[in-house]
Every structure is written in C-alpha cells, then in structure tokens.
Amino acid sequence: MTNNPEKKFKAGGCSATVFINEFDTPSGKRAARNAVLERTFKDQDGTFQRSNSYSLNDIPKAIFVLQKAYEHIVREGPITEPSLVREAPKT
Fold it and tell me: What gap in Å lies between CA 89 and CA 91, rounded to an integer?
C-alpha cells in the first residue's frame, strides 16, 4: 500500500487530498477513501508552512476543494477489493 495521494484538489493555498487507506477488520482487509484538508502559506522567511487554520478569505476555497474531494470519492464509489487498489500516480 502506498501513501501517495489518489487525487489532489487546489484553490489558492487550500488543498484537499484524497488518500486510499487500507485497514484490517475481523472480516479481512478493507480500504476506504479519506480526504485531508490543509492550507499552505509562506512564512516571514519565505519557507512554506502548512496549517489547518482558515481565514475569512480561505473558507470559500476550503469549501470548494472539499466539495471536489467529496465528488471524487462519491464518483469512484466504495473500494470492494483492497487488492485491486492501484498505485496512485505521482502528483
């Protein structure tokens, strides 16, 4: 299983990244898609930083990328066979 994202949606400094997570259950291996929301910005030194704090102007962008991630997850549907999970392309 890879930790590479399946899909990433960006708007300004906000991004929602979809990952496929595999886990064990009493009935065997399962997999599910999850989304991670974050904001990227440059600090005073010009170094990129990540945050999960959103300003008034970031909130519409966060909503947009989360909506895109949600649409992707719904469109792709549930993962019924974890062994069929493909390697995600490099983004």
Answer: 6
